[in-house]
Request: fold
Amino acid sequence: MSSSSASAHGGAGKPNRLAAEHSPYLLQHAHNPVDWYPWGDEAFEKARKLDIPIFLSIGYSTCHWCHVMEVESFENEEVAKLLNDWFVSIKVDREERPDVDKVYMTYVSALYGGGGWPLSVFLSPNLKPLMGGTYFPPDDQYGTPGFKTILRKVKDAWENKRDAIEQTGNVVIEQLRDALSAKASPQDVPNDLAARYVDQCVQKLASSYDPKFGGFGSAPKFPRPVEDCIMLYKFRKHLEARQESEAQNIMKMVTRTLQCMARGGVHDHIGGGFHRYSVDECWHVPHFEKMLYDQGQIANVYLDTFVITGDEYYSSVARDILDYLRRDMIGEEGEIFSAEDADSAEYEGALKKEGSFYVWTSKEIEDTLGENAELFKNHYYVKSSGNCDLSGMSDPHNEFSGKNVLIERKPGSLIASKFGKSVDEYSQILGDCRQKLFDVRSKRPRPHLDDKVIVSWNGLAISAFARASQILKSGPPGTKYYFPVTGCDPVEYLQVAEKAANFIKDKLYDASSKRLHHSYRNGPAKAPGFLDDYAFLINGLLDLYEYGGKIEWLLWAVQLQVIQDELFLDKEGGAYFNTPGEDPSVLLRVKEDYDGAEPSGNSMAAINMIRLSSIFDAAKSEGYKRNVEHLLAVFETRLRELGIALPLMCCAADMLSVPSRKQVVLVGDKGSAEYRNMVAAAFSSYDPNRTVIQINPRNTEEMAFWESNNANIAQMARGSPTEEPAVAHVCQEFKCSPPVTSPGSLRELLNKTVAVAGSSI
Reply:
């Protein structure tokens, strides 16, 4: 773990209390003249003792506008004096305390119609909100009050209108508490209604599809992988219903979107991975921060699209993302870090600017690439005047004048032909050029790395690495890969996933209480694990078991599900709260349902329980299903009226309505080549309603687990032909096919009810 995250943001002033914290974001503010406190009793007691309001500032270490407000206001001695004289100032890292952030972001969004970071909220000493907003400039401008004016107004209101503003805060919090903790009676979701949730969500997305540049909606364009997930889910439903043209229409939207994203500047062509979002409609000029939660989810969408189409283009992009994480975002013990900043200096000692690390002048490319510069510039639309001119939204303030954000606008085959090269030769030249530029870029000042380890985000990445370890085996042998893709053996990705899971188990899991911590940096943070931590990690562990085969991951997933139910489940009202409810300073327990940049904990939990229900015998299986039914009942109105906000939960509702998930039971010696080939065959097709169970009948621990939890599976293992190194059983709708003993037979069995999709896409 790096201990150097206290960046130059805060200058060299006298350290404040934040210097003792572990959060990179708090450490960035450790030398501000503001007398900052971390969230906790010391700050609350001071506010109560002095009877003065609290100023709460929430952000995260890779947040551009958080940096701007720090430089303009929190490093300003005049502003600091106002804050120190009139308020108790608290700084919170939203990634370390998402529970605190959720309370006050919900308040600001409800009252002011929008939110974002930095989040700036004024509280009474009892932590009820008085007023709030996001970024404030230091001084009045264009008729908008600046931060100093706001500080004076809040002080005046506290002294002269205190009762009124406190009452308003109390009322709002009570209203939000009622609205965000909905209850319902358990009820079945009718099958036709579940299918309608999916259909309505898909239709809404299709109506917002951009046929020119891909994606759903207009600029700014965010990769929201849950949108692609429900589109692919509906694609599979169409195929099963023999609705070929409808299936192809959906795949055209998904593939066009993924191609435009990968060719655009939102994709880091030199180093791999994806930036946060594109400011324009053509995926060209991004907001340059890179977030772990994006990488894992985006990689999974490219993996699924590769399985469906068989097109190595998508597997190469998935590898690009995972290789970026392996190279730049993983610590010595296998932990996966959180984010890289958008801002960096052009050279040592310069002020940090958005995108400095990633953009290029034409001359830099010519000097680095020599005779191949012209070819490279043609391929990536590089111009001496700069290339951020594709949209009026790309660079409205000319911040990137003379600079280029690499983007692929023409098919490589056309440019290869223009330069008299074969496609293979052309691809190799481009790879060599990217390697040279990567080496030059590596000498630039790097963006700040937030080396905090967040359990939920690691769970998303663990899922992608585990799934890649099998899905990528479907590629044709001898496929060539070009920098920054390494072309490693897919089994290496499984090792990454297992190391990350082991780090969490060793450092962020209390074996005695069986509880998770939320995050780690130089030790576990004070915050407990939240719903997302449990749900996302359980999902990753189930993938580790299904794709990797080790029973230990299934055992831990089951154990964590028990603890998740104890801590977060509303047993009477249904669904899960986002927090354990044990911290009195957190005023709201919310039942989150929005599948945004990250899925909601409730959506992920629903899918986890559906997966678990297909592993266990009837008694336990029914318990999982009842919890899912109750959860869906809580969000029934939202699913019916605004399904586009809950695409993953729409999928969960439909998954529950499937009469029985397909079970693929693989029996044999897990170390044998024949068995490994059988596992790869089990994942050679796309089927979100499939569970793969791996079992070695000679392993006493595994057999004991199945004897106790699903005697049918145990009997299947015992009854498999012992002379065969690998046997596969495919079961669905309460009947099993005759066992097969070759990968080809298994592929044929899995695909016999579904048309081949890739040929015409």
